Structures are given as C-alpha cells and as structure tokens.
TrEMBL record:
<comment type="similarity">
    <text>Belongs to the Toll-like receptor family.</text>
</comment>
<keyword id="KW-0325">Glycoprotein</keyword>
<feature type="transmembrane region" description="Helical">
    <location>
        <begin position="785"/>
        <end position="807"/>
    </location>
</feature>
<keyword id="KW-0391">Immunity</keyword>
<dbReference type="InterPro" id="IPR003591">
    <property type="entry name" value="Leu-rich_rpt_typical-subtyp"/>
</dbReference>
<dbReference type="GO" id="GO:0045087">
    <property type="term" value="P:innate immune response"/>
</dbReference>
<dbReference type="Pfam" id="PF13855">
    <property type="entry name" value="LRR_8"/>
</dbReference>
<protein>
    <submittedName>
        <fullName>Toll-like receptor 13</fullName>
    </submittedName>
</protein>
<keyword id="KW-1133">Transmembrane helix</keyword>
<dbReference type="Pfam" id="PF01582">
    <property type="entry name" value="TIR"/>
</dbReference>
<dbReference type="GO" id="GO:0006954">
    <property type="term" value="P:inflammatory response"/>
</dbReference>
<dbReference type="InterPro" id="IPR000157">
    <property type="entry name" value="TIR_dom"/>
</dbReference>
<keyword id="KW-0395">Inflammatory response</keyword>
<keyword id="KW-0433">Leucine-rich repeat</keyword>
<dbReference type="GO" id="GO:0007165">
    <property type="term" value="P:signal transduction"/>
</dbReference>
<dbReference type="GO" id="GO:0005886">
    <property type="term" value="C:plasma membrane"/>
</dbReference>
<dbReference type="InterPro" id="IPR001611">
    <property type="entry name" value="Leu-rich_rpt"/>
</dbReference>
Length: 993
C-alpha cells in the first residue's frame, strides 16, 4: 500500500489542496491511501506551516475521505490461470514461472512437475499463511537471495529433482519456522557459508543425490542448525567420513543416512553423535570396500537401527560394526551383502538386543534348518526377494518369539511346514509366490495369527478346513489369485475376521450362507471378479459389514432385491460400478432393492454395461434415508422421475455426469437441500437455469463441463451462495454482453474459484471464435459505476478547489464584477434619457457619517458656496426602487462626491453608488467623481473597487483628516473641484490636501 505524500518546503509552496488531486489522479484504482495513514503523514508535513495552510489540511482529509478510490484496494479474483484450489491447497500445472494469482489464504502450494527454471525474489510476496511448498520436478537452476523471505509461516519445503548447482548466502532468509527441507536429486556442489543460518528450527534435512563430495561441507551446513534431528546425505560422492569433520555441530542428530557414498573409511574418534538412534551406511556402486574405525563403543551407544544394505565391507569390519552397537541395536537391515549368508546371520543374531532382522536379495533357494538357530530373540524376520523355493521343516523352530514373518516375493509352491512351529506368530506374509493350493494343515498351530497375506499367488480353490486354526485372524488378503470357488471356507472358524479381500479372482457365484462365519467382518472386497449370481442369503452373517465392493462384475438388476441385503443392517458403502444393472422404465418396482439398507451412506452405480438406454425406477432409492453420496455417472440414463430423491433427504454428493438426461428441472433437487457437490458434466445441458429455483443454498462444488450452454446468468450464480468451486470448461461460450456479468464475476470473485477460466474459448459470434472468453472487453456492455464514481468524485474535488480558491483570493473581484454588471444594465437603461443636471453634486455617504455631512459639509457647500446638493435622505423619491433613485441622482448631478470612511467601505449601498458613478466615469470619460477621505485608510484595506479606480486614472481626492489645521484650504479645493468643467481625457483637476 502506498501513501499520498504532501510536501511544503516554504511559505509559497504548492497549495495543499492541489496535492490531493495528484493523489487521486496518480493513484487511480490501484493505489491504496488509507484515511488514517493519510492524516498521519499530513499532520507531520503541515505542523510547521501557517494557520491558513493548517485550515486547508482539514479540506485535504475531507477530499481523501470523499474520493473512495484513494483508499479502497480492490479484491483480487479467484479465477486462476494455471492452478486449482481445494481446501486451501493450490495445485498448479503447465507453469513456466511461479503463478502470481495465488490467493493469500492458501496454506499449501503444489508446484511440482512444472517447467519453472528460476525462483525470483518477488515470487512469494503475498503468501503469509503458506506452510507447505512443493517445487519438486522442475528445472530450477537459480534461486534469488531472499526469494523465500516472505514465507514466514513455511514449515515444509521440497526442492527435489531440480538443477540447482549452488546455494547462495541468503537463499533461505526468512524461513525461521521451517522444520523440513528436501533438496534431493540436484547437482549442488557449493553451499554458501551462511546459507542455512536462518533455519534455526529445521529438524529434517534431506540433501541426498547431490555433489557435495566433502563431509566438511556438511559441517558448514549443520553447524547453523541447532534443532536438526534427521540428516540424509546419501549419494553425495563422499569418500570418507571422519568425526573431526563434524566437531560438535551434530550432537542433536538422531537419524543419519550416508548410504550410497563411496566411503573408504568410516571413522569416529570423538563423541560427536551422542543421540544417534538410526544409522544407514549402505553401499554404493564402487567396488572398493569400506573400513570401519570406531574403537569406542560408547560413541554409538544409543543406535537402535542400522541399515547396511549393499555395503561392501570385510567380514571382520562387519563384526566390528555390530560389536560397536552390540548393547543397543534392535533393528538390522542386512540386504544384498556379498558374504556367506550363514555367517552374516550368525554375526547378526549374536547381538542379544536384536529383535528385527531384514535379510533380502541373497538368492537363497533352500533355507536350511540351522540357518537361524542363533536368532532366538528375533520378533520380526523379513526374507523377501530371496528366490526361496523350499524351507526345511525345522528352520524356524528356535524362533519362538517371532511375531512377524515375511516370505513374500519368493518362489514357494506351498505354505512352508516350518511356519507351523511359530506359535507366537501374529503376521505372516506369503504374497507374490507360486502357491497354487492350500491344505487343511497349512496353518496348524497359528492360533495367534492376526494377518495373513496370500495375494498374488495361483490359488484356484479353498477348502472348508483351511482356516480352522486361525481363530484370531483379523485381516486376510486373497486378492489376485485364481479363486473360482470358496467351498465354504468362511462358514466357520474366522469369527474375528475384520477385513477380507477376494478381489481380482474368477468367482462367478456367491452361494447362500457363504459368509455365515464372519460375524465380525467390516470390509469385504469382491470387485474384479465374474460374479453374475448372488444367491438368496449369500450375505447372511455379515451383520457388522460396513463396506462392500462389488464393482466390475456381471451383476444384473434382477439380482438386486431387498432380501439380498436383509442382513447388511450396518452397511455404509456399497460399490456396484461397472456391472449390468439397467432398468427399461421408471415404473415403480414391486420391491425397493435397497429398502433394508437404512444406514447406507454411499451408493455407486457408475458405468453400467449393456445395450440400450436406462431409467431409474421411482422407488429405486426408497429406504436410503441416510444416503449421502450417490453416483450414477455414465449409465446411459435418459431421465429421472422428479420424486426419485424424496427418499434421500441427507444427500450431499450427486454424480450424474456422462448421461443424456432430458428435462432436468429444479423440482428434482428440492428434496435434497443439503446437496454440497453436484457433477453434471456431459449431460447435454443447454442451460443451468434449473439451479435458480432448486434451493441448493449449501452447494459448494459444481462440475458442469462439456455441455451445450453458452451463457451463465447472474441469477444462476446468485442461487448457489455457498459455491466455492465451479468447473464449466468445454462449453460453447458466447463472447457478447449476455455473459458480461459472468466474466466480471469470474475474474473478481474472492469466494468462488472458476477452474481453468482463462482457458475458456469463445464459439460465438463467428468473429470471436477461438478467442479467450476472459479477454472479451465488456466495457461496452455496461456502465462502469466505479469509473463514473471516480470521475465524478475527481470532478467534484476540482470544482470544490476552484470555488474555495476563488472565494479565498478573488471574491472581491467577483463582487466588483457583479456590481459593474448592474451598473452597465442601469446605464443602458438611462443612457439615452438626456436627464438635465438638477444638482451640482450627489453626496454618497454612510449614515454613520451623517453628522459630519449635516454639520460640516452642507453649511459650507449649500450655505456659503451656494451649490445644489442631492442627499438620499432628503431628495430621493419615495416609493421608487433604491437603485433607480441612486442612478437618477448620479446621472442628474454634475458631480458625485463620495465621503469615504471604513463604515462606507462596509456598506452594500455605498458600494453600489460608487460603482454606478465609476461606470459613468468610464463610459462618458468625464471627471465626475470626487473622493473625500474622512480618515486615513491604508491601501491594503481598500476594497477592489478603489484599486480599480487607481488603475484607470489619477485620483481627484481630498483628505479631511489632513486638512484639520487648514480647513479653509480644504473647502476652497472642494469648491474648485465642483466648479471644474467636465473636460475629457486627462484634463481633470488634481486636488489633494
């Protein structure tokens, strides 16, 4: 926000009022000039000026208040060019620069996968609430110093996978609240000495896959990070790791990853990592071996997790490494190490505290019975990706504490008998093997098993007895097999099962009573099968089921009946997408298919296959009084009965896109006033006018793209006051005045985002086809009230200034001009009357000076000198207008004597008398005016009339005050002036006393 600054350098400085015009004209509608700040600056400027200027300050304040454009900052619009906003999170695509139209209320900004090459210092100026910024996968090679300085609330910053080579000294200025920083996959070689100094609250730093090459550079980074807990610097081409390179700057570290570096020696000679609990020293592609040099076991005395995946190290050094953490290690990942498997396992299991061992990628085809004899303390064992084909029956006999066993991604053809010895086992993973058949004793003695993964095998059928011992099983994953029959495997035994996944098999029928033993089941996935028949009572026993997925099967409408769902009293979600459910007409069904599902919240029927169009029966949704989400996208729907939604008063989301619904009216939506999201894209709509009377006051999300309407009326938008997101791309918009209101609203609305509005194109009229809709100039369509207000306000200010200036400096000149005009009119009226001179002189005086007239003037001029005088109180004709009496008296006298005093100058009628006499003087070029000053009056106090007289001719005047010592001379001079002839030009008598 800028201010209108006024400057007064001296007494003759520019008048303060003119500065407000500069403020108004230069600021326009984009300059903010708040009344409070304006007054404050004005007060500072005018405190040393004169009283007159201080008075003008109040006028200036009034003008700034009057001119609204001086201090109102218009709101920015919500129609973004490349971004989409949802829940205060902005996602931007196809950007080559950081978008500048992001609303300041955004909390999370996702700029990943764009083409941004540079971050400028002005890119994030208006995002004070931003807490998360994702710049992953761009082409950023340069970040200006201080580019993030305005992101005072930022906590997470992602700069992964860019082209940064160096970090400047002040690149992270302002990020004092940042807690997570990721700079993976760049080319950084150089880091400024103070680059990371502002990051005083940073806890997580991932600097992996760069080119630092020297651990000393790491020290220059972390020495400024007092709260750093996690440091990931893998694959930075470090060839050594020495504790003296870190000194005491790393004492707070808990997680350290130096894997994939060609480290030749890992040496710790001081206690620089006292709080470290997680260490990854995995190997790299370089063939030379790493040497372990940590003599004192206390230096890594708290490390509980070590990852040695792929490390190239001599067996003795591996022993030394594990001895270093012998008293604290609980988790060890020893994957793909080129040493004897048995030796590695024996070394690992010699650690008394070890409870979790990951041993992958060793190509062990046969697992012998003695391989894990020392691993008596293990509770977790991961043997995935080892190409295991068979396991000896006694292999796991010593692992009586084992709770989690993973044998996934191997080549097992059956369930190993060795697992039956693991009575404490709670989780068994046999996924991605070659198991084709399950036997009744495969899981014998597994009474504590809670999760069993058998997906991605080749199992074709189940046996009724196969799960008989799994009484505690809660999760069973059998998806992606070749199951065609269940054979009663779920009729008994699995009473505690919560989740059953049977999707991606070849099931065709769900038989009656198939799941009667699954009283605790909550989630059942049967999608991607070939189910076409659902026998009566097939879901019996599933009283606690909440989610059932039946999409991508071959279920027809005939299979849906209320008896089918009788037992699913707690069902919340039912997915029937991509089946064959179609109805030929809207006739009321003899039974409502979902009438028993009173608690159902989500019903999905999207994309129903089969020939012909479909309709939904009037009572199709009967009984679904708690339904909140209903999806019928792309079911070739032709029409809906206006009463279909009377059964679903709680509906909040409706998706009916990709249909050809005829006769869409507001009546359909009146029963569902709680609707918040509506999807009606590709429905051949020619108008959105049905929303006007639909009473959808809670609608916040509307997607109506790729339809046939061309105009968005104001009434439509006003009818959905809660609208936050509007997607109407792909329509045939008109670029004319019918859309003028919508265009302005789309640009300026601060509450509703019109998605991708800047990409909308015009289809009509022809001469605008292909042009951008928001580029259409709507100024010719309506009166710009704001501009008119601006012009009228500015004009009013100018007029007020002119009037005030004229009144202050020229008001007497205006009065003079007024009287001169009156005199001109009077002269025109009397000029040709040829009135004879009745008097020698007309006496113009103020009544307060009447004593001097009576006592001094009359006795001398009439009594002694014999002149005929005209006095208004004696000689004016009664009943005649005063101005006519004055004019007749002046033009009927040879001379006019003006007896001037301060009172005279203040009298309106005296002013008129002297004006008429002056005009006669100017018009006739005769010296007919005699001035007598009764008192000394400085020139500066004379009214403009007398200054005008002084400019025209030399004065004929007398001063009574100066003649007090020589009165005889005064009267003689006056007599001579009265006797002087009426000569033209400069031949007037000059008398002065």
């Amino acid at each position: 926000m800028r201010f209108c600054k006024l400057e007064f350098n001296d007494e003759e400085a520019l008048h303060p009022v003119t500065h407000i015009i500069f403020c108004t004209l230069s600021a326009g509608v984009n300059t903010g000039c708040t009344e409070w700040d304006f007054k404050k600056k004005m007060a500072a400027e005018v405190k040393t000026t004169t009283t007159g200027k201080r008075k003008h300050f109040h006028l200036v304040t009034f003008f700034c208040l009057l001119n609204i454009s001086c201090f109102v900052v218009p709101a920015t619009g919500f129609a973004l060019k490349t971004c989409k906003i949802s829940s205060n999170t902005a996602k931007c695509l196809k950007s080559e620069v950081v978008p500048q139209d992001i609303p300041s209320t955004v909390i999370s900004l996702d700029l990943a996968t764009n083409k941004i090459s540079k971050i400028k210092s002005s890119d994030f100026k208006n995002l004070p609430l931003l807490t998360q910024l994702d710049l992953n996968r761009n082409f950023i090679s340069q970040i200006d110093n201080g580019a993030f300085s305005d992101l005072v609330s930022l906590k997470r910053l992602n700069l992964n996978n860019n082209k940064l080579v160096q970090l400047g000294e002040d690149v992270f200025n302002g990020l004092s609240n940042l807690t997570q920083l990721r700079i993976i996959g760049n080319r950084i070689k150089v880091v400024g000495a103070t680059s990371f100094k502002p990051l005083i609250n940073l806890k997580f730093l991932d600097f992996s896959h760069n080119k630092l090459q020297d651990v000393k550079k790491v020290h220059s980074i972390i020495r400024h990070l007092p709260n750093l807990q996690e440091l990931y610097i893998k694959n930075n081409h470090f060839t050594s790791f020495h504790s003296w390179e870190l000194t005491n700057s790393s004492v707070g570290l808990k997680y350290l990853d130096v894997s994939q570096n060609p480290i030749k020696i890992f040496q710790i000679t001081a206690d620089v990592l006292p709080n470290l609990t997680w260490l990854n020293i995995g190997g790299s592609f370089v063939k030379h071996q790493m040497r372990w040099d940590v003599k004192n076991k206390t230096y890594l005395g708290r490390v509980s997790t070590v990852d040695m995946t792929g490390v190239q190290m001599a067996l003795d050094d591996i022993k030394l490494l594990l001895q270093t953490v012998n008293s604290s290690l609980t988790t060890l990942r020893m994957n793909a190490i080129k040493h004897n498997c048995a030796a590695l396992i024996n070394i690992s299991c010699s650690i008394p505290t070890l409870s979790s061992l990951q041993f992958r990628k060793y190509k062990i085809k046969h697992v012998g019975s003695d391989l894990f004899k020392l691993c008596v303390n293990l509770t977790q064992l991961d043997l995935a990706y080892n190409q295991i084909e068979n396991i000896s029956d006694n292999t796991f006999r010593s692992l009586q504490r084992l709770r989690i066993l993973s044998l996934s991604h191997n080549r097992l053809s059956s369930v190993p008998a060795a697992t039956r010895n693991l009575s404490a086992l709670a989780e068994l993973d046999l996924s991605s093997n070659r198991i084709s058949q399950l036997e009744c004793d495969d899981f014998a003695n597994q009474t504590k098993l809670r999760q069993l993964n058998l997906y991605l095998n080749s199992i074709t059928a189940l046996k009724e007895c196969v799960f008989k011992d799994l009484v505690q099983l809660q999760v069973l994953k059998l998806q992606s097999n070749r199951l065609s029959k269940l054979n009663g495997a779920f009729k008994d035994y699995l009473t505690n099962l919560r989740r059953l996944q049977l999707n991606n098999n070849t099931l065709t029928t769900i038989e009656s009573g198939e799941f009667t033993g699954l009283q605790s089941l909550q989630n059942l996935t049967l999608h991607d099968n070939q189910i076409g028949k659902l026998e009566k009572g097939c879901f019996t026993g599933l009283g606690n089921l909440t989610d059932m997925l039946l999409q991508q099967n071959q279920i027809k409408e005939d299979e849906l009946n209320p008896h089918l769902f009788n037992d699913l009293v707690n069902l919340r979600r039912l997915n029937l997408i991509d089946n064959h459910i179609k109805y030929e007409n809207q006739s009321v069904l003899p039974y409502a298919p979902f009438s028993q599902l009173s608690l159902l919240e989500t019903l999905e029927l999207t994309y129903q296959r089969g020939r012909g169009k479909s309709r939904l029966p009037t009572n199709f949704l009967q009984g679904l009084k708690n339904l909140q989400v209903f999806k019928i996208r792309n079911i070739q729907l032709l029409s809906l009965n206006k009463d279909i939604f009377i059964h679903t008063p709680q509906l909040q989301e409706l998706d009916m896109s990709a249909n050809e619904v005829v006769g869409l009216t507001s009546e359909w939506f009146k029963p569902i006033p709680n609707l918040k999201s509506l999807y009606i894209s590709r429905t051949s709509l020619s108008s959105l006018d049905f929303l006007i009377d639909a009473n959808l006051t809670k609608l916040s999300f509307l997607q109506a793209k790729k339809n046939k309407y061309s105009i968005i009326r104001e009434e439509v938008i006003r009818s959905v006051p809660a609208l936050v997101y509007l997607d109407i791309e792909g329509n045939s918009f008109r670029c004319d005045c019918d859309n003028s209101w919508f265009l302005q609203w789309a640009k300026n609305s601060s509450t509703t985002q019109v998605f991708d509005a800047y990409s909308f194109e015009c289809n009509y009229p022809v001469n605008f086809k292909g042009e951008k809709l928001l580029s259409f100039d709507v100024r010719s369509c309506s009166v710009d009230i704001a501009f008119i207000c601006y012009i009228s306000t500015t004009s009013a200010i100018l007029l007020f200034m002119v009037v005030s200036y004229t009144y202050h400096f020229l008001r007497w000149h205006l009065v003079y001009a007024y009287y001169l005009f009156l005199a001109l009119l009077t002269d025109k009226k009397h000029k040709n009357k040829q009135v004879p001179n009745q008097y020698d002189a007309f006496i113009s005086y103020n009544t307060h000076d009447e004593p001097w007239i009576i006592e001094e003037l009359l006795p001398k001029l009439e009594g002694e000198q014999g002149w005929r005088l005209c006095l208004h109180h004696r000689d004016f004709e009664p009943g005649k207008p005063i101005i006519d009496n004055i004019t007749d008296a002046i033009y009927g006298s040879r001379k006019t004597i003006c007896v001037i005093s301060r009172r005279y100058l203040e009298s309106e009628w005296c002013s008129r008398e002297i004006q008429v006499a002056s005009f006669r003087l100017f018009d006739e070029q005769k010296d007919v005016l005699i001035l007598i000053f009764l008192e000394e009056i400085p020139t500066c106090e004379l009214s403009p009339y007398f200054r005008m007289r002084k400019l025209l001719k030399k004065r004929t005047y007398l001063s009574w005050q100066r003649a007090e010592k020589h009165p005889a001379l005064f009267w003689e001079k006056l007599r001579q002036a009265l006797r002087t002839g009426e000569d033209h030009g400069e031949g007037v008598l000059q008398v002065a006393v």
